[in-house]
UniProtKB/TrEMBL annotation:
<keyword id="KW-0812">Transmembrane</keyword>
<dbReference type="InterPro" id="IPR004714">
    <property type="entry name" value="Cyt_oxidase_maturation_cbb3"/>
</dbReference>
<keyword id="KW-0472">Membrane</keyword>
<feature type="transmembrane region" description="Helical">
    <location>
        <begin position="6"/>
        <end position="27"/>
    </location>
</feature>
<keyword id="KW-1133">Transmembrane helix</keyword>
<protein>
    <submittedName>
        <fullName>Cbb3-type cytochrome oxidase assembly protein CcoS</fullName>
    </submittedName>
</protein>
<dbReference type="Pfam" id="PF03597">
    <property type="entry name" value="FixS"/>
</dbReference>
Amino acid sequence: MFGSLLVLIPISIFLVVVIGISFWWAIFAGQFEDTGNAADSILLDDDSTASPAGTERPPDT
């Protein structure tokens, strides 16, 4: 009954430590710096579909 706990508890502690180290690295590596530009970039994208001069196609009929 308690045999599975003896396996699962050390595995879960190991995973918590690995996730904590990964999060700590991400903070100090600058992964969360300037999050506003990434969110705004999709709004500022040029969605025009105009073709360059001389390459217009006739509309599909």
